[in-house]
Write a structure and sequence with these properties.
The complex is a heterodimer.
Chain A (H helix, E strand, L loop, with lengths): L6 H13 L3 H10 L1 H19 L1 H24 L2 E3 L1 H30 L6 H23 L3 H21 L8 H26 L10
Helix pairs in contact in A: 2-4, 2-8, 3-8, 5-6, 6-7, 7-8
Chain B lengths: L10 H4 L3 H4 L1 H12 E5 H8 L3 H13 L3 E8 L2 E8 L1 H20 L3
Antiparallel strand pairs in B: 1-3, 2-3
The chains are: A mainly alpha, B alpha+beta.
Chain lengths: ~210, ~110
């Protein structure tokens, strides 16, 4: 037997199967669409409303994902409750993400209050770093390796976008191009994983009493 | 069946829990050991066993008192949840320890 038997790996495998349905990827992709469409809307709606208009969109996507999970995915992959160690890890993840969000909020407020005196490149680097950190933390705590790649994609998006914008290759700080590419990749990866899951896991006919 | 009196060198192997030792049941118990509970579909998918096969092994484990099977209805559909009992957890730990000891004692 060449495979190493590990209880930790078994737990990790069990945990991964519960979210590896591609729907998280689709949701993340839809989230980052805000940076693709938002800049075009801000001219007519203003900065606040061009962002706020996405709230019902995300709510709709979230609801659709919840319904798909409940009626399409769960009958195919089943349900599982995890032990205390995993619950504790998830609780730690929530706390770390909350701290990161507070830091992001403070940095965002400082940048907004400085009325444009912070150079664009610096803002892009900080924004990209926060995105990269958020994704990396999530990847680590959730044992979700794809998030490292997504983290790199969205982390580089503001910086590359800024470069495209300063060299006049793109409008709106290059966000529609860079974030659009990242969001597109996430949605495509998510959909392909979801379709593969549907093909490989048909719904069992009936439960046979044991 | 091993007769431990016939060959004393086999004693440690004879002590190994034969209910757990079957590969399919070992697989099921490994997953149940690392989670709190799982349903039938989840175990079937993770272990790669068929409905009938999984059902047979779960019955054996239930008879040994290692797992508890809870049957309920979710809407109109039957739903079976399986979890490791305290006895099952202890037996699995003991199995792990015994097997480790036997393998460690083997010469290279």
């Amino acid at each position: 037997m060449s495979q190493k038997i590990s209880l930790k790996d078994a737990e990790r495998k069990a945990f991964r199967t519960t979210y590896n349905d591609g729907l998280v990827d689709v949701f993340l992709g839809c989230f980052f669409l805000m940076f693709v469409i938002g800049p075009y809307l801000s001219a007519s709606l203003g900065d606040f409303w061009s962002t706020a208009v996405f709230l019902p969109f995300w709510a709709l996507v979230y609801l659709a994902i919840w319904l798909i999970r409940r009626y399409v995915v769960t009958p195919r992959i089943g349900t599982v409750k995890f032990g205390q160690a995993r619950i504790a890890k998830l609780a730690k993840f929530t706390v770390v993400m909350l701290v990161l969000n507070v830091i992001a909020l403070i940095l965002g407020s400082v940048a907004a209050l400085s009325f444009g005196s912070v150079p664009g490149q610096m803002t892009s680097i900080i924004f990209g770093m926060i995105l990269l950190m958020g994704f990396s933390i999530a990847a680590y705590f959730l044992d979700f390796n794809r998030l490292y790649i997504y983290g790199l994609l969205v982390g580089l998006s503001p910086l590359v976008g800024e470069w495209l914008w300063t060299h006049r290759y793109a409008t709106h700080h290059g966000f529609p191009i860079t974030f659009g590419t990242s969001a597109g990749i996430m949605i495509l990866v998510g959909l392909s994983i979801f379709v593969r899951l549907l093909c490989n896991n048909p719904v069992p006919k009936v439960e046979i009493p044991s | 069946m091993i007769n431990p009196h016939a060959n004393p060198e086999l004693h440690p192997l004879a002590d190994i829990d034969q209910v757990i030792h079957a590969s399919a049941r070992l697989m099921v118990l490994t997953y149940l050991y690392v989670v709190e509970s799982a349903d039938y579909v989840f175990l079937m998918r993770l272990t790669g066993l068929t409905w009938g096969n999984l059902s047979t092994h779960l019955t054996k484990l239930e008879e040994a008192g290692y797992i508890a099977i809870t049957k309920e209805f979710k809407g109109k559909k039957p739903h079976t949840t399986i979890n490791l009992t305290k006895q099952g957890r202890t037996a699995f730990r003991e199995y792990k320890r015994s097997l480790q000891q036997v393998l460690d004692d083997l010469p290279d």
